[in-house]
Amino acid sequence: MRAIYRRELKSYFHTMVGYVFIAFLVAFTGVYFMAFNLNYGYPYFSYVLSSIHFVFMIAVPILTMRSFAEDRKNKTDQMLLTAPVSLWKVVLGKYLAMVSIFAVPCVIYLIFPLIIMTQGTAYLVVDYLSILAFFLIGCVYIAVGMFLSSLTESPIIAAISTFGVLLLSYLWSGIADFLPGSAAGNAAGIIILAAVLVLGIYQMTKNWLIAAMLEAAVVITCVVIGIVKASLLEGALSNLLGRFSLADVLTGIASNSLLDVGGLIFDVSLAGLFIFLTMQMIQKRRWS
Amino acid sequence: MIEVKNLVKRYGRHLAVDGLSFQVEEGQIYGFLGPNGAGKSTTMNIMTGYIGATEGEVLINGHDILKEPEEAKKHIGYLPEQPPLYMEMTVREYLCFAGELKKIPKDKLEEQIAEVMELTKLEESENRLIHNLSKGYRQRVGLAQAILGFPEIIILDEPTVGLDPKQIIEIRELIRSLAKRHTVILSSHILAEIREVCDYIMIISKGRLVASDTPDNLENLMNKTAYIQIQVRKPEDRIRNILGSLECIETAEYSAEGEGVITVRIQGRDKEDIREKLFLAFAEERVPLQELRLVKSTLEEVFLELTQEGKEAETDESNI
User: Which of A37, A97, A258, B240 lies in disulfide reach of A8, CB 3.0 to 4.6 Å?
Assistant: First the structure.
């Protein structure tokens, strides 16, 4: 794992991608920091971070697009997969290398609250927690980007699809407002959502029995809850899907100084899930 | 050493490898021979654990490549069809990385890299970016990566493709020298190469093993198809009379070639060498022979014969 981690890290700096990524993040943060904190004298650095959340959409695809797609294109994956190294080490090595690069701007961010402190009162706990939340959210996005990169042979397609997913995630809280509120609408939404998931499972396993049973289970549960206690279903969809609005944790810290610990744990689990899915995807390709 | 049992690989409906079984013994050079698309690369990819087989198993020194991948892969060095090179690294950096992947202890790594670079004649390009190397040199870096750590089994997929004749000879010599300490399996669609380097040939066609033996045995196997070719001046019925009087002839094919000359392909009975009898028969009738020669089938013909549509030679698979 260390060999892969070190190679990836070096390669990011050989190909300039690492420098560009770090420079881009730091420069953008710097501009916002100058405007909000220095110019307008607002003492919270967390506000800057929650405002520049959108840079992930551009920065993360640049970082993650090559991770697996390029290996596959250049056939270097043959070397990694035929070496006496287990797959999870390969995936984790690559992931940690990307996270390390993302950690560089985050470490630089640690300086900003101190600059505020030299000019007056700084709210260090809030600011440092927001940097932690920012880092964790970035880790989730990197895991998503890595997963999408493992799906394709072309870094460009990987970058564009990552951009699409991150854009969706950015607009998510807005989209979630349009979800239906009534019990029936929610039940229908959940069933449709389950159908999409089940179709995905069927694609992967080619086992229609499991797929059909899962779908049936969801339908029955919805119907039973709908009959017994319909109020449970009201707004269930927006509650469920609203969790995926990752930026909410950051906004919570910035605007209310509230830390959503559950949200942070959710981020970490989501990153773990996508790392796991990446491994599954690579395994699946070996067998088809 | 390597045991491949009833290997099957399906890509959707396409059957790439169809029930392949063979064993590989220590210290020999094995050649996979087959036309393009015969399933050579697929078989090698399965043997090295890059892709999974639909059915069947591969045992490397008793370790199943799928159940104990790390243990099995330790014994293999693999050069795929396209060398797996990171273009942005220098040759030395790349080999260091390959060594670390193969878990070569740090204190031995330096020494081994030097040895491998000497074998593949890469010392001078040690600090060059792989991106800037020519095809032949890239192939050598790929080869160096495969033999690094000196695994017991070295698998090379078309190692000489795209090289110039001088490089091909060098690589062949290198493979031969490797065989002193290692088992080498290489694939090629070039017959001359396999014939020159390998101790043992496995001919694969459409994912099936159609023949496997030493080069000499394969040629002998086909020698029953050897025939004698003579050229005699016309008229044809006179030649027919002479040949008809000889009992040792099984078949004779007549074809007119050039002016006033007839070429006859004669198959003797019971593999008997009938050249002298033919000569005497014609001499008695005072008909001069312009040409008399024995045509043996070459390995090329064996290869074509075996890999042609719908044909399967009856070889004894038990002596693989």
Answer: A97
Q: Do B101 and A84 touch (CB under 8 A)?
A: yes
Task: Report yes or no: A16 at the B interface, CB cutoff 8 Å.
Answer: no
One domain for residues A93 and A18: yes
3-state secondary structure of B35: coil
Q: In the listed set A196, A219, A234, which residue is the last one of a domain according to the structure?
A: A234
Which of B80, B88, B98 lies nearest to residue A78, judging by beta carbons? B80
Helix (H, G, I), strand (E, B) or coil at B119: helix
Secondary structure (DSSP) of B142-165: HHHHHHTT--SEEEEESTTTT--H
Q: Inter-chain contact B50–A7, Cβ cutoff 8 Å? A: no
Residue with tokens 């050493």: B1
Question: Is the CB of B100 less than 8 angstroms away from the CB of A74?
Answer: no
- Every domain of chain B and the residues it spans: 2-214, 227-295
The radius of gyration of chain A from alpha carbons, rounded to an integer in Å, stands at 21
Mean pLDDT by 10 residues, chain A (288 residues): 91 90 94 92 89 91 93 92 91 96 95 91 90 94 95 94 92 81 82 88 81 88 84 78 82 86 90 94 86
Cβ-Cβ contacts under 8 Å, A6 against chain B? 97, 100
Same structural domain for residues A203 and A138?
Answer: no
- Structure pTM? 0.83
